[in-house]
Amino acid sequence: MSQLLQVENLETKFRTADGKLPAVRNISFSVDKEETLCIVGESGSGKSITSLSIMGLLPPNGEISSGSILLDGDNLTEKTEEEMEKLRGNTLSMIFQEPMTALNPVLTIGYQLREPLIIHKKMSKKEANKKSIELLDKVGIPNPKEKMAQYPHELSGGMRQRVMISIALACEPSLLVADEPTTALDVTIQAQILDLMNELKEEIGMGVVFVTHDMGVVAEIADRVMVMYAGEVVEIADVESIFENPQHPYTKGLLNSVPDVDDETQELEVIQGSMPGLDEEITGCRFHPRCPFAMETCKQKEPPLFEVTSDHSSKCWLQEVKQDGNSGAITRS
């Protein structure tokens, strides 16, 4: 697989009454073609801001203050808004968390599906209509021709999300950014949509950035996982390493908070405390106030992103501690 997306030293800030505050702090990652990178973490960790930075859809008071976002070698941070509009919905697409707010309530499903095909693919209305019906059929919507004439409020939540996926995939994008697209759906529809996204990823050959806080979804869809905390990348690895050999205490806490349906005696772990605000300056590791493994070094110096293996990194001073010949690995309880 070849590299599709390369994010280097990205910092995103918000202008507030207290000055410019960083929501994403100097993060770097990449996504290959036909690869799904899941970004996980609690609310406020910077997941959605990272995805909106990629799309160039930050709110008016947000700005990318430094770093680069290369899509097929093209730096998106240097694009004008007009140039980004030509990319969005075409080479670059996004599925939002809540389709009822993302879909236009006064336009039919058919109109909203045809629009990107007419604008980006220069199709006639008749061609776009035919393609739109095919797309709705592909995502499992019954009676697609009939649904074309309906409005968003006339469809169920699962159907609306399938419509959003159809719109996002209409122009066969190189990169799909999905911001918690299954959060509001029941587990049956969620499973169907995850299966569908996996199928379409392979069929189209696109890369996927999938934002979620649900570790069950991560296990289902991820190739690699990036764990974020307080705007920083704290761990990044292939999905198997994250589940079988987590290295950062925060990752371990997230995994231990997932219930095991086969273990009736399991006690779920709670990560004590809460995510720091944007205006909270913390010396050393930003997770140390909540970390059960915190050492004096953690309170004084910010850790680098240590290399655990060639494709596994952890931003934790425990990597310097040699225990049982495993470079400070954290064993899951």
Descriptive notes:
An eight-stranded mixed beta sheet has the order 6-7-8-3-9-10-12-11, with helices on both faces. It has a four-stranded antiparallel beta sheet with strand order 2-1-4-5, with helices on one face. The chain starts with a strand and ends in a 19-residue tail after the last strand. It is α/β, with parallel strands linked by helices. 32% of the residues lie in helices and 24% in strands. It has two domains: 3-222, 3-Layer(aba) Sandwich (Rossmann fold), CATH 3.40.50.300; 228-320, no CATH class. It is built from twelve helices and twelve strands. Helix 4 (109-120) crosses helix 5 (125-138) and helix 5 crosses helix 7 (157-169). The model is unreliable at 327-333 (pLDDT under 50). It is globular. Keywords: ATP-binding, Cell inner membrane, Cell membrane, Membrane, Nucleotide-binding, Translocase, Transport. InterPro entries: AAA+_ATPase, ABC_Ni/Peptide_Import, ABC_transporter-like_ATP-bd, ABC_transporter-like_CS, Oligopep_ABC_C, P-loop_NTPase. Residues 5-255 form the ABC transporter domain. GO terms for molecular function: ATP binding. It is found in: Cell membrane.
Mean pLDDT: 89
**Unreliable stretches covering 5 or more consecutive residues:** 327-333
Order of helices and strands: EEEHEEHEHHHHHEHEHEEHHHEE
Number of strands: 12
Q: Over all CA atoms, what is the radius of gyration?
A: 21 Å
* CATH homologous superfamily descriptor of the largest domain: P-loop containing nucleotide triphosphate hydrolases
Which architecture of the largest domain would the CATH scheme give at its second level?
Answer: 3-Layer(aba) Sandwich
Strand line-up across the major sheet: 6-7-8-3-9-10-12-11
CATH topology name of the largest domain, in short, is Rossmann fold
- Please identify the top-level CATH class of the largest domain: Alpha Beta
The share of residues in extended strands comes to 15-25%
The geometry reads as globular
The biggest beta sheet, please? 8 strands, mixed
Helix content: 25-40%
Structural class: alpha/beta
Number of helices: 12
Q: What count of domains describes the coordinates?
A: 2
End-to-end C-alpha gap: 35 Å
